[in-house]
Amino acid sequence: MKGSICRKLNRPASLYDRLQACLRRDVPRRLLPNAVTGGSSELESMFMIFRVQKCFQRVCFLGSSSNSSAFLHTCSSAVSPLGSSQLERPTRLSDLDIIITRVPVGNSDDQVLLSLQNDQACNSIQLTHVLVHQLLHRFKNDWKSALGVFRWAESRPGYELPPDAYDMIIDILGKMRQMDQTMDLLERMHQDRLVTLKTVGKVLRRFAGAGKWEDAVRIFDGLGRFGLDKNTESMNLLLDTLCKEKKVEVARDIFLELKSHISPNAHTFNIFIHGWCKVNRVDEAHWTIQEMKGHGCRPCAISYSTITLFYCHKYNFGKVYELFDEMEAQGCPPNVVTFTTVMCYLTNSGEFEEAMQLYERMKSAGCKPDTLFYNSLIHTLGRAGRVSEAIRVFEVEMPENEVPHNTSTYNTLIAMFCNHAQEEEALKILQKMEGSGLCKPDVQTYYPLLKMCFKTGKTDNFLNKLVNDMVNGHHLSFDLSTYTLLIHGLCRAGKCEWAYSLFEEMIAQDMKPRYRTCRLLWDEVKLKNMSAAADSIEDFMKKL
Q1: What is the per-residue burial (b if ≥16 Cβ within 10 Å, else e) of 143-174?
Q2: pLDDT tens digit string along 204-247?
Q3: Which residues contact residue 280 at a Cβ distance below 8 angstroms, ignoring those fewer than 6 apart?
Q4: CB-facing half-sphere around the CA of 233: CA atoms within 13 A
Q5: pTM of this prediction?
Q6: Which long-range contacts (CB under 8 A, 24 or more apart) does 15-20 make?
Q7: pLDDT over 70, % of the chain
């Protein structure tokens, strides 16, 4: 209907409509630019005509390209293949786009810094805290690019980086296991008096996550050097870090040493309850609840919900309901988080009717659903094949109860429609999400759509558009799971050249592909007689 109206008005259909048309007919690559853009001549300048044409050339031939890095960082995001309303027609590149296109993929942070410093267009841009945040978020899985961008922003005359930008780059470096770089930056922050407890918390978590928990303890011991106190809050930060890395006994020893001069609070004991459950020692978790009472701290719903989660992991729902009774007897009945957790595990175990009964119990207890609970409910209904009921929850029940949608709400619906092979409905939800003005797609939004591409064999035009929309439309960086999905899917679709270019990107970003991924790609490139690629993959596998 929309397309017919556009024709009567002699206007091109929206990008979304044109994408749907491409889905229904596999448009030949040579026709894709006209098929999608409608051959529009209403562009704002000859420069933008050139940019858009070049972008579409890259989209069309990405599958056979040996260098997808050019696609990822130089395609204009002026055209969103899934058609946000504000992107109906190409406009000038945003400041964010301009900077991203100047960042060379896979190079050192020094090279990224020089590239940006020597670029007139970049240096004419007035930096803002929001723009810097967007850039660091864009390169959160590529520490070299992130650090290069950070150093460039830091070097700009008249601009001062906000403290949260330092915390972001510290977290990115730590996540990518660049511990020397992390400590160097922490030392610089110390000299400039920028270190906060939030900063230290990120450093502690990343060191513990890298298996360097002793270093995490040493950093805590040196808090005074940063002008920070050893108090209940900082102690809890260290204990939580250790418990999350299953170093519960170490955390316990530290607690026993510190508790004589640092008083614990309820959060301290909840940390240990979580830690003991994480290492499958639920008896100690129950004992910690008694210890908690001995210190004058009252157990709360969080205390019991942690143990509830442990029994959910074991699918021991009998124990879960016993805990519900105990919680009610102690005057801290299950809260919405507890109900959400149990519903998720009932759904995972295929107990859909019991999950719905839990919803009724929750309503009877007067516990109001929140967004996360409704997301879980939609997932449950989708898994049970009750798609129309899931849509009603989204369209009717949540608005009636004034519960807002979030990104995960849309993601859950998109995944549901993809799982039921309703690709056009999935795309409509994505369009609603983009038009909501409140929720932005993330990598998880696109994951089921990418899987759907490979499942349905749409690995040319449609897959290219999705990738372009992710990278250039929404400035998302691929994580390990997305790279793995793409490489496996492309190999099975006979597009190992593109798969190998993604493999090279991962290596350039210090992201390690799994052995299975390497082996699959190695087998495929050997069949295509890509001997240089096969040798490169084989050399990498020897290092795993």
Answers
A1: bbbbbbbbbbbbebeeeebeeebbbbbbbbbb
A2: 999 988 889 899 999 999 999 999 999 999 999 999 999 999 99
A3: 310
A4: 8
A5: 0.67
A6: 15/79, 15/80, 15/81, 15/82, 15/83, 15/87, 15/88, 16/82, 16/83, 16/427, 16/431, 17/83, 18/83, 19/81, 19/82, 19/83, 19/427, 19/462, 19/465, 20/424, 20/427
A7: 83
